[in-house]
Structure to design on (286 residues):
């Protein structure tokens, strides 16, 4: 009999994939962790039944949450990733030549262990000497760090369960305080098609904390609706103003999604997203 994995998202969306093998299933202190091999997308990590990443399309999400903010900073040395226990964001961070230290703060150590074992192409850089792994609640960690990180990447689950605290004003204020003066941050900011009201809520919280907020978007096929967003925030630095072209070219040469044209294009939001993410319309068309 065929085995299928079905993700039901907020009781509104359902998507299914044919499974050829179940590699792992466990209940951690925080959530249910599953790894399955799907015929369509290779190995897939699910947390509490929700798809977090797949071998086939993970590069889109991980490259965009990382390279857009890191390339906006003149030379990020110390980077913090909150969540992201699968290691994909850390893998991308380490491609930046200026990075000396990358801290991964993940609440669930079991996610890290399982991903190291079953998703080596994603988690394979977690043993790099520049990486420090902290198994801790990201909100508690951030509250204890001030003026320390050049970039903070919030690679969270959805705002349900253990990830909920990472979508609050108090947490964003902690992130701002933990950034250096030129610091930049990016967070995953959900789907403007699947959960537009949640996107509005996140955007308005970010705008109440950060002087500069700009959402960008792309298609991640395995997330609900396929349309995804990330939001760049800073105390003043803008994401397109001072990209270091040499570093951008080095990154693009190793990337499957990122290139200089994509860097501009992800900020070109269609009108319905401009409304959701509070972007002023351009006065002229180029
Ligand atoms: N609905 C899924 C949202 C998942 C966002 N985080 C993915 C983690 C990948 N490192």
């Amino acid at each position: 009999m065929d085995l299928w994995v079905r993700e039901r998202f907020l009781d509104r969306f359902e998507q299914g994939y044919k499974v050829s093998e179940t590699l792992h299933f466990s209940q951690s202190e925080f959530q249910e962790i599953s790894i399955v091999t799907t015929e369509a997308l290779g190995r897939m990590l699910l947390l509490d039944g929700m798809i977090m990443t797949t071998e086939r399309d993970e590069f889109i999400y991980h490259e965009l949450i990382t390279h857009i903010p890191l390339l906006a900073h003149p030379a990020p040395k110390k980077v913090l990733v909150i969540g992201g226990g699968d290691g994909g964001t850390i893998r991308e961070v380490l491609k930046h030549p200026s990075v000396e230290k990358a801290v991964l703060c993940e609440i669930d150590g079991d996610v890290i262990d399982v991903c190291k074992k079953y998703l080596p192409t994603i988690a394979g850089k977690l043993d790099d000497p520049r990486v420090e792994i902290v198994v801790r609640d990201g909100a508690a960690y951030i509250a204890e760090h001030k003026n320390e990180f050049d970039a903070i990447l919030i690679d969270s689950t959805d705002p349900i369960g253990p990830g909920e605290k990472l979508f609050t004003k108090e947490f964003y204020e902690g992130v701002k305080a933990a950034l250096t003066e030129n610091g930049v941050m990016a967070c995953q900011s959900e789907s403007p098609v699947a959960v537009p009201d949640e996107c509005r809520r996140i955007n308005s919280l970010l705008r109440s904390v950060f002087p500069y907020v700009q959402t960008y978007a792309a298609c991640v096929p395995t997330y609900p609706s396929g349309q995804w967003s990330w939001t760049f925030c800073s105390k003043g630095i803008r994401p397109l103003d001072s990209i270091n072209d040499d570093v951008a070219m080095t990154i693009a040469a190793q990337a499957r999604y990122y290139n200089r044209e994509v860097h501009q294009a992800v900020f070109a939001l269609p009108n319905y997203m401009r409304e959701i993410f509070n972007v002023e319309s351009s006065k002229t068309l180029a």
